Structure formats: structure tokens, C-alpha cells
Amino acid sequence: ILYGQSADDVMPLDGLDDESVRALTAAPHSATPDIPRAERTLAMLDRCAALALDDECDALATAAFVAWWMGRSSWAAERNELALAAEPEYALAGLLAQILDHSIMPPWVD
Length: 110
Hints:
about 110 residues; mainly alpha; globular
């Protein structure tokens, strides 16, 4: 995700240190996401999910979270249902299912 969210188009993951991770995650949580960057991240996660084994839901659940954060609940629900089908006890997918079931929007959405 950090690769896709990098302000630069290329940021090798092996070059990440504590300071660069802090810089990437320092944006206010209520800030409107950079939709083009989030879309690139979502596309990368979808490609990872397509290559994953049937019982691996990490990329799907993370893609669902990114879609939710973008304000695209239907996209999030679709990916999250697939993640839960692959691994029903996956914590992120379970939490996101509750968020979606209660129609909770990301904090940047008014």
C-alpha cells in the first residue's frame, strides 16, 4: 500500500525506514484522500488479489478498506464479501463488514 500511496510514482519498499513511513502516514485522518493515488493502490491490490490463493484474503480486505476510504462503499462491500468468503475470521474484513453494515462513512465525508 505504501508503494501505491507514495507521492512519487516509484518508491521501493526496501528503502522505507521509520521516518519515511511516518511521513507517508502523517496526513490528517480526516483529510480528503488523493483519489488518483488511491485508485492506483486499489488497482495494485486487485492485481495482488487475482494472484492470491483462494484462501488468502489479505489483498481483498485491504482493497475493500481502500475502496471504503475513497467513499465507494459498494466497491468495498464487493471486495469485503470475497475476503470473508476466503477467510471468515479475518479481522480487517470483519471490522469492515460492521462498518459497511452500519453505513459508516470515512471521516472525511461530510
